[in-house]
Amino acid sequence: FILGSPGSGKSFAAKREMLNVFLATGDDIIIIDPEREYTNLVAAMNGSTIYVGPSSKNYINPLDMSKDYSDDESPLVMKSDFILSFCECLVGKQGLSAKERGIIDRCLTMTHGSYLQNFDPDKLPTLMDFYENLKKQPEKEAQGLALSFELYIKGNLNVFAHKTNINLTNRVVSFDIKDLGKQLKTIGMLIVLDYVWNKITENRAKGKRTWIYMDEIYLLFANEYSGNFLFELYKRARKWGGVPTGITQNVEDMLKSETARSMLSNTDFVMMLNQATSDRIQLAKLLNISDNLLNYVTNSESGQGLICCGGSIIPFKDKFPHNELYEFMTTNLSELSEINAKKQEG
């Protein structure tokens, strides 16, 4: 995890690591970018930016599932966990009842029936197939679910109801989900993460690591199901050669989730930059940080903080030279305006 208040340098720290991975390894890098902060760096690394939004023609099918989707259980079991998380986000705060979860699981099994026989890509179902099966169910709850999902499957926000038409052949891929807006952003992060999981399974067979960077990760802890899905992905990724990193400035919101607290206290690597007072106090308790060390994340300069790794807590101060690489990585508005002005003059 990389945690820091606005202006503390957390995005810069993430970009710095991405660049190191790009130059020093042959690994793949995948970014989930909710605020369009990584476009320049991705372009500098000759990467691909995939724009996902209601008006975009880039589609990701939430029902995509390779035969290697899960190694120790039926692929459909893990896919069911994901689809329940997805549906929970669609229905909002009221959540899903036990009966509704059972109906969704039943429809998912029906929808994937012919595909599971031989994993023929041409038979991969879409949310439209799932929706039609849902409407055929006799329970009134099924009809209510179909009505709740209609906007996102047949309505104007049906961006995730199509067959996937993108691929991840580039070493560096960024999913720009800014245009999804607040209502669809959490759903978009979930779907991209699920799609990325398929890439992790492919790279494992090649002996290649996959580095995943998720900005605004606190959004995934907004409800129990999406938080649990992320927790399972973190656990599985280690074994499969994935290196997931969560980035956020909304530490207080994230720590409201017990799942997030458990993940933070058990993660291999936490980078803390300048923290708000309430966040600092909670993180100190969670990670056993002394008052003396807390000075490094109290009103600290950009690029200064603490690294918690392997039971050790180490202060650091990153003074990156203001060179051409720096220009690709900075998100400081005044610096960006100066850089753009120089380019226009040139």
Low-confidence stretches: none
End-to-end span in angstroms?
Answer: 39 Å
Portion of residues in beta strands equals 5-15%
Q: What is the tally of helical segments?
A: 15
Overall geometric form: globular
Supply Rg: 21 Å
What is the helix fraction of residues, given as a range?
A: 40-55%
Order of helices and strands: EHEHEHHHHHEHEHEHHEHHEEHH
Structural class: alpha/beta
- Secondary structure: number of strands: 9
Tell me about the largest β-sheet. Answer: 9 strands, mixed
Mean pLDDT level? 89
Q: Biggest sheet: strands side by side, in what order? A: 3-4-2-5-6-1-7-8-9
How does this structure look, described?
The structure is a single chain. With 346 residues, the chain is an alpha/beta fold. It has 15 helices and nine strands. The protein has helices at 10-24, 39-44, 75-91, 98-111, 115-118, 127-135, 140-153, 181-206, 224-239, 251-254, 258-266, 277-287, 291-294, 324-329, 333-345; strands at 2-3, 28-33, 48-51, 172-176, 210-215, 242-248, 269-272, 304-309, 312-317. The chain has a nine-stranded mixed beta sheet, with helices on both faces.
